[in-house]
């Protein structure tokens, strides 16, 4: 068996965005390493027969970032974005099945996205090509509405491209609104378009709009205000004709679960379900398909228009991502506890065939257990336990590191837990048992479960985590005297909060964590959401004087989601108490550069090893 190295973690290739051709014969997907090897990310495209008869082959290969592949309606062309013509600036390309690429745009500001209506033309999503506006940025506060930034010259617009002549003309008129997403109805006659009132989220207040646009004339019809965090516009068909669905947050929000909405009246199609939709696709017959997070697993469901319910077609242990459909097949990225992410394809009801071999191989992984337990108030909870590689429960108790997921609307599925951030197997390889809890507030248990943390961050969700730790101590798995805790984003908040509430933990890692909720609400990208989660009374900074546990504070210098000021607050509050403060230059909310990811892996494992030995 080989040794798991940090290089193996960040250099492994992870597939994403598989797309089935409309005729159901082919699957194209992107694949990229976990870390950026240079200044710009690199990802490649791969093409495989949908029946798995041949392994995937490199498609339109280049040392560049190739992404977002999409098929033409006749399955003859793959369109994709690539920065091969100028690193860091994406242009639209296409290639036939022979993989010979053809550049279709030379947009000075780069292309953000594209849509392929049936009919040959291409709809581009891109900002105007005129020179960027000079300083300063101006904040405008119109009467009766929220504060917005003047983003002249920055919002994305719609453009119509003729691939044969390369001619581009504006499409539709949205005023100063920013185009976020567009989806073409399969018959090519209508575009669904999602817009924001501004091109950025700062300071977290923006108004969404949903529209229909005629690609031939540019005529626009407004469908009103969609649900909060609307995304994934998807056309589907019932007996009455074409309909539009999308994902959004359940009302009243903003702290709530995700649901599927019908754009006609913005009706919640998943009301009352105790599971959470994570992706949408239109099947070859036009029926609406969806992936649902259900506890630790994922299901594939299809909407029954007559009954208005989603019938289960297939269930997968672990995680399914990036659903697409073509002909009578679907494609997803799937992983399990010991098998890394791989593209799978098959009928919606299964079985799904693996396209290619997962990587890396030849390594002994820690055994991953599914946990189920009840909170203090009786709420059913789940999570995962990863034991040290090659060990069993009988070999315990072990030093235990609890890693708290972000969000809080996220989850640990029973999937492959390996990455610079998902460190379960990385820590298990160093002799730690790793607890991955899914406390209330997360994904996979419906609206009420997700909404229960509103205004109570660090409350019952923290108790849920402690209950799980206590059960592992009682079972002889965890050593009470060698407990550590860590997490990123909201998980970083929980780690910081934990060491203000108890001295049980001997080591903590706070990555991009929240120290002060009111300050975050005023300075972060998600102001309204942060304000709904907590206030001064449940901010770690309020109780920082209690912290005795050594804390590793890690933050990206350019983080706009949770600004660096949060880490600086905690750092200054700890003063001369044991802690380490690490700032990664050029990084945002998530570390992207390979060198930084390697440093984070080595640094966090050393931190826990030194303090929990």
From TrEMBL:
Residues 425-611 form the Peptidase S9 prolyl oligopeptidase catalytic domain. Keywords: Hydrolase, Protease, Serine protease. InterPro entries: 6-blade_b-propeller_TolB-like, AB_hydrolase_fold, Peptidase_S9_cat, WD40. It comes from the Bacteria. Signal peptide: none annotated. PANTHER family: DIPEPTIDYL PEPTIDASE FAMILY MEMBER 6, SERINE PEPTIDASE S9 FAMILY MEMBER. This is Prolyl oligopeptidase family serine peptidase. It comes from Amycolatopsis melonis. The lineage of its organism: Bacteria, Bacillati, Actinomycetota, Actinomycetes, Pseudonocardiales.
């Amino acid at each position: 068996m080989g040794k798991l190295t940090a290089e193996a973690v960040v250099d492994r290739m992870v597939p994403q965005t598989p797309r089935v051709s409309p005729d159901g014969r082919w699957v194209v997907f992107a694949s990229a390493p976990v870390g950026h090897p240079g200044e710009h990310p690199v990802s490649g495209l791969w093409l495989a027969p949908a029946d798995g008869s041949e392994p995937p082959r490199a498609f339109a290969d280049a040392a560049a970032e190739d992404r977002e592949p999409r098929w033409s309606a006749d399955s003859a062309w793959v369109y994709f974005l690539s920065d091969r013509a100028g690193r860091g600036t994406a242009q639209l390309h296409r290639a036939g099945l022979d993989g010979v690429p053809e550049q279709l745009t030379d947009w000075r500001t780069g292309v953000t996205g594209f849509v392929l209506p049936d009919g040959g033309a291409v709809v581009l999503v891109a900002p105007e090509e005129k020179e960027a506006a000079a300083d300063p940025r101006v904040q405008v506060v119109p009467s009766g509405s929220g504060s917005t930034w003047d983003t002249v010259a920055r919002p994305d617009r719609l453009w119509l491209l003729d691939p044969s002549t390369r001619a581009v003309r504006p499409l539709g008129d949205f005023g100063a609104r920013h185009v976020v997403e567009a989806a073409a109805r399969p018959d090519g006659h209508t575009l669904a378009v999602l817009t924001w009132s501004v091109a950025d989220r700062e300071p977290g207040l923006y108004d969404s709009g949903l529209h229909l646009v005629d690609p031939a004339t540019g005529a626009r019809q407004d469908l009103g205000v969609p649900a909060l965090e609307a995304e994934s516009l998807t056309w589907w068909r019932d007996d009455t004709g074409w309909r539009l669905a999308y994902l959004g947050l359940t009302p009243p929000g903003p702290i709530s679960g995700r649901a599927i909405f019908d754009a006609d009246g913005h009706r919640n199609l998943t009301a009352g379900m105790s599971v959470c939709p994570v992706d949408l696709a239109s099947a070859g017959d036009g029926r609406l398909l969806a992936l649902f997070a259900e506890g630790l697993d994922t299901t594939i469901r299809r909407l029954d228009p007559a009954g208005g319910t989603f019938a289960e077609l297939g269930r997968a242990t672990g995680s399914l991502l990036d659903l697409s459909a073509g002909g009578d097949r679907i494609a997803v990225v799937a992983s399990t506890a010991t098998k890394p992410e791989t593209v799978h394809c098959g009928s919606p009801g299964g079985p799904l065939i693996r396209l290619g071999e997962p990587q890396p191989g030849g390594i002994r992984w820690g055994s991953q257990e599914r946990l189920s337990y009840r909170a203090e108030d009786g709420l059913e909870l789940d999570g995962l336990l990863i034991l040290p590689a090659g060990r069993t429960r009988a070999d315990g108790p072990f030093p235990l590191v609890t890693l708290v997921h972000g969000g809080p609307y996220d989850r640990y599925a029973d999937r492959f837990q390996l990455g610079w951030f998902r460190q379960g197997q990385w820590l298990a390889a160093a002799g730690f048992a790793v607890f991955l809890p899914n406390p209330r507030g997360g994904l996979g248990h419906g609206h009420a479960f997700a909404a229960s943390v509103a205004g109570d961050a660090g409350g019952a969700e923290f108790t849920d985590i402690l209950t799980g730790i206590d059960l592992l101590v009682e079972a002889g798995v965890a050593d009470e005297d060698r407990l550590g805790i860590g997490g990123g984003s909201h998980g970083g908040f929980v780690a910081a909060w934990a060491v203000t509430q108890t001295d049980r933990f001997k080591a903590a890692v706070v990555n991009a964590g929240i120290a002060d909720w009111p300050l975050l609400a005023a300075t972060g990208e998600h102001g309204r959401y942060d304000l709904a989660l907590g206030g001064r009374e449940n901010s770690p900074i309020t109780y920082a004087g209690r912290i005795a546990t050594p804390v590793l504070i890690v933050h990206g210098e350019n983080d706009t989601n949770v600004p660096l000021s949060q880490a600086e607050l905690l750092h200054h509050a700890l003063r001369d108490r044991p802690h380490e403060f690490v700032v990664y230059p050029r990084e945002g909310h998530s570390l992207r550069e390979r060198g930084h990811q390697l440093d984070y892996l080595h640094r966090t494992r050393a931190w826990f090893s030194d303090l929990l030995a």
